[in-house]
Design brief:
Radius of gyration: 21 Å
CATH architecture of the largest domain: 3-Layer(aba) Sandwich
Helix content: 25-40%
Strand order of the largest sheet: 5-4-1-8-9-10-11-12-13
Largest sheet: 9 strands, mixed
Number of strands: 20
Shape: globular
Mean pLDDT: 93
CATH topology of the largest domain: UDP-N-acetylmuramoyl-L-alanine:D-glutamate ligase
Structural class: alpha/beta
Amino acid sequence: MHVVGGLYKELCTIPQWSATFGSGGRAAAVISGFSEKVILHTYAEDISNEGISSLKQLGVEVITNLRSSNIVFAYFHPLSRPYIQPNPNEIEQIKPISVSGDAVLRFGFIEGDTIVTADRAVYDPQTWRNVESFSANGSVAQELAIVLNELELKSATQLEDLGAAAAHLLQHQGASVVIAKRGIRGATIFEHNGRSTDIPCYRSSYVFKIGTGDVFSAIFSYYWAEKRLPVLQAADFASRLVAAYCNNRGRIPLEKNAHLNQVAWKFRITGTVKIEGIVNTIGQRYTIEEARFALRELGVEAYCPALGDRFSSAVTAILILTDGLGTMLTKYIEDALSMELPIVILCEDANVISSVKNNNNITVVNDFSSSLYFAAWIASE
């Protein structure tokens, strides 16, 4: 299996995370636990890059093309927009990498490009800005699967309707299948015969979001491009192992059978989350505004009385942010319970968590990203 993609430094503040992966490095690391031979084609500032050393320990063959400096993605939390250093507009563009093989996974790069010749290729452009077609640089494949998220699909086609956007790619880019990753909704598979099929999102007990898209593309590529499984089965395995990756908090390798016991979550309605908390400090306000923004990005409606919001639809779940509530937390919980709705409580203080009484209607979480996903899941099922 050939993987072509970036090898970048990744940093996160909360939770603390420091690793050298990038899309290419992470995908190669994941696939190494399944495939007998994985070759990563990438750019790096030198061959002593810590990511290269780690990949070689996993049995990955790394073919390196030199670049002038390291590239870093820094996140405040896993759902935040990354700060990229150097600025992408200032990164020197390097000559394209050429790769030929039976099965090739191609990611988009910041610093370069890849010309692919393959029997089966999977293309994940990794950007919503100026999405380039697979064949624009001369790449060819007997069978092509394009994997991208909703925003990337709409941007690539300038069409708002997902079905119409996918049909456009299938017709004009020679793809056999288009897979639209849809967050908590899972993924939708669009095939050349006009059939579309939804693949569910699978639940996890923890949500580590950095790299989940890379893992999906990696697992799908292994099962579809290398093992030649049917596209729906390959995509379902990919979705299941994304949940396993989240449960593993981003640690690789994954267990080969980790997908067997995953529980599917099915999106039923566009839920509405009421966010409860206070905004007396800049930190409290930032957290609540970030929670509201992220929930809306996940595809649910969200409003917060503390921010002066008014809601226009029925509330289906409540998220309580405990920072600064102190003894008022009990009242917030009692008021929420009186609404007979499911409640998610974000509480990063273990002492406060222990004071929350057990209740089947309450889910207590100590991780910001996980609390938002749980609230979105609960609100929309």
